[in-house]
């Protein structure tokens, strides 16, 4: 698991915004991942995505890494934000957009 944790740490550390999801942004493979992609696209942020369906070690490892049982999972500037429900709540309250601003994540205005 250590190698997997290091791989995940590398992905999270090298990208301002990263979404671990089922499928890809063009072809999400579950409704929760689709919702997360739509929120990020609406916010206009550039993000990296990781398809957990393509790598079982990452799929299981990300749950242990964040101590969060579900996918998708959003990380911003190395910090775990949450899954689809938390993203939705934050987006609807304007908190997600504010977090991107506060952390200096560029958005398309």
From TrEMBL:
CDD domains, per database record: GRX_PICOT_like
Annotated InterPro entries: Glutaredoxin, GRX_PICOT-like, Monothiol_GRX, Monothiol_GRX-rel, Thioredoxin-like_sf
Every Glutaredoxin domain range: 17-81
PROSITE patterns: GLUTAREDOXIN_2
Annotated Gene3D superfamilies: Glutaredoxin
Keywords: 2Fe-2S, Iron, Iron-sulfur, Metal-binding, Redox-active center
Similarity comment text for this entry: Belongs to the glutaredoxin family. Monothiol subfamily.
Protein name as it appears in the record: Glutaredoxin
Classification lineage: Bacteria, Pseudomonadati, Pseudomonadota, Alphaproteobacteria, Sphingomonadales
């Amino acid at each position: 698991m250590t190698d997997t944790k290091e791989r995940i740490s590398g992905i999270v550390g090298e990208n301002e915004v990263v979404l671990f999801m089922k499928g890809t942004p063009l072809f999400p493979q579950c409704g929760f991942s689709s919702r997360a992609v739509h929120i990020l696209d609406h916010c206009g942020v550039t993000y990296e995505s990781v398809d957990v369906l393509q790598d079982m070690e990452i799929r299981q490892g990300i749950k242990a890494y964040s101590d969060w049982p579900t996918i998708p999972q959003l990380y911003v500037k190395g910090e775990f934000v949450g899954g689809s429900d938390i993203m939705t709540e934050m987006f609807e309250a304007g908190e997600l957009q504010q977090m991107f601003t506060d952390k200096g994540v560029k958005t398309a205005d």
